[in-house]
Specification:
267 residues; alpha/beta; 60s Ribosomal Protein L30, Chain: A; Alpha/beta knot; 7-stranded parallel β-sheet; 5-stranded mixed β-sheet; 12 helices; 34% helix; elongated
Length: 267
């Protein structure tokens, strides 16, 4: 049974996991050093615990205790309770969804483990916006993709903003980081996947055509600014484009992923 601890001092050292949530660089250092991540909001906190992640602690306003009582009953982690105005002093913003949880990270699985039963995979190169990463995982999960692979410089799927946008899909969608950026796509091809790069390359064909009839497919998406690197673009087995009206050549990477996932799922 969780231990409820009322706190009146926003400087209380027990709240260290929750400090300055808007400071991205500081949070990256703190979360990596202590092996933790934060979940925000009743639904996301619930999904994290139900997915088996171990809570370190909870932080919430009194009015959220009843709604999360069943979740709190499953753990011995402390639950720090304080007014929303004081919680805002700790976190640096208004936690309008009322509840936060600090949870322990797990070691990342190997690429082979993530791909073991996969037929449809998303591969992300240097997508650095946490919102985009979260939206991509949510689209992939919703549209039946089996796994996500991230290049080393991609944003962290377990950063608070990514988790929030993904609505917890990051807890159920298998994902990991690629240890070898240079040979990542040839390695996927050798594992039986047809890699399909979304790009404006001259030889790109409509995505419906590129994925038609494929058994195992890996959709490859590039960074928000420049898209795929030339190396990854040319390393892919096929290059594809989402046809659109004249004068518009691209979509936001998260929107493009949703469209491509939908088309690929119907192949």
């Amino acid at each position: 049974m969780v231990a409820i601890q009322e706190i009146s001092d926003p400087a209380d050292p027990r709240l260290a996991d929750y400090r300055d949530l808007r400071d991205v660089q500081m949070r990256k250092h703190l979360e990596a050093e202590h092996g933790l991540f934060l979940a925000e909001g009743e639904k996301v906190v619930r999904r994290a615990v139900e997915a088996g992640f171990t809570p370190r602690s909870f932080l919430m306003a009194p009015r959220w205790l009843e709604g999360l009582a069943d979740v709190l009953a499953t753990t011995d982690a402390p639950c720090y309770v304080m007014p929303e105005s004081l919680a805002e002093e700790v976190t640096g913003f208004h936690v309008h969804r009322g509840a936060l949880a600090s949870l322990e990270r797990r070691p990342l699985p190997s690429v082979s483990t993530v791909l073991e039963r996969a037929r449809s995979v998303l591969v992300l190169e240097d997508i650095i916006d946490h919102t985009n990463v979260g939206a991509i995982l949510r689209s992939g999960a919703a549209l039946g993709f089996d796994a996500v692979l991230l290049a080393p410089r991609c944003a962290d799927p377990l950063y608070r903003r990514s988790i929030k946008v993904a609505m917890g899909a990051v807890f159920t969608m298998p994902w990991t980081r690629l240890p070898d950026w240079h040979d990542a796509l040839p390695s996927l091809s050798a594992a039986g996947f047809t890699t399909v790069a979304l790009t404006l390359a001259d030889d790109a064909v409509p995505v419906e055509q590129a994925v038609a009839g494929l058994d195992k497919v890996a959709l490859v998406l590039g960074s928000e600014g420049h898209g795929l690197s030339p190396h990854w673009e040319q390393s892919a087995d096929r290059r594809a484009i989402i046809p659109m009206r004249e004068g518009i050549d691209s979509l936001n990477v998260a929107a493009a992923t949703a469209v491509a996932c939908y088309v690929t799922a119907r192949r």
